Amino acid sequence: MSGPEATPSQTVGPFFRLGLDRPEWSDLTLDGPRGEKIAIEGRVLDGDGSPVDDAVLEIWQADAEGRYPHPEDARSADAGFRGFGRAMTDEAGRYRFVTIRPGRVPGPRGTLQAPHANLTIFARGLLKQLVTRIYFADEPSNDRDPVLSGIADPAARRTLLALRQDAGAAYRFDVVLQGKGETAFFDF
Question: How big is the CA angle at 95 (ends 66 and 59), to the nearest 5 degrees?
């Protein structure tokens, strides 16, 4: 007699919209933080370039002074800044966060990292979440960022750069899950 068969692993979703669609979660500025208010917006696309209409994106970032609202960051963070947000994609794969431009945060061996936001993506078809970073293409300190400069392939490095739109306060950052132009993801 053989033992029971193992249940195969399964992907997440498509249940996100039922419990996680709270539009107010995508605005990290509701409590009036200090700093330059910006939007980060874009699309989530699959390997064929089609929109992913039920992805969840989570953003985690420092305040304008480079401090995280987290107990492990002993420096006092801006009490008006949440630091964490969540957004759903719509039928066209679009998402949008309203936040502030983050400051530089301490990195390895006393270096400072370029301003960035950490981004986690959950979507159907994924066995586990994807993790990446959003850097700002107009930031002069990008060349000295130890994480960004540690990516050897210049094309992969460019996938982490959000582009300012129309000289305004919005940055465009598309997430390509696989294939041509795939966003660089980090393995944790």
Answer: 25
Distance CA 95, CA 81 (A): 20
CA distances for 88 relative to 55, 91, 127, angstroms: 6, 10, 18
**For the chain, which residues score pLDDT lower than 50?**
none
pLDDT digits (tens, 9 = 90+) for 52-81: 998 999 999 999 999 998 888 778 889 999
For the beta carbon of residue 105, count every other beta carbon within 10 angstroms.
Answer: 19
Q: How far is CA 170 from the centre of its chain?
A: 15
Q: What number of CA atoms fall less than 13 Å from residue 155's CA on the CB side? A: 4
DSSP string, the chain: ---PPPPPP----S-HHHHH--GGGGBTTTT--SS-EEEEEEEEE-TTS-B-TT-EEEEEE--TTS--SSTT--SPP-TT---EEEEE--TTSEEEEEEE----EE-GGG-EEPSEEEEEEE-TT-SS-EEEEEEETT-GGGGG-TTTTT---HHHHHTTEEEEETTTTEEE--EE-SSTTPPP-B--
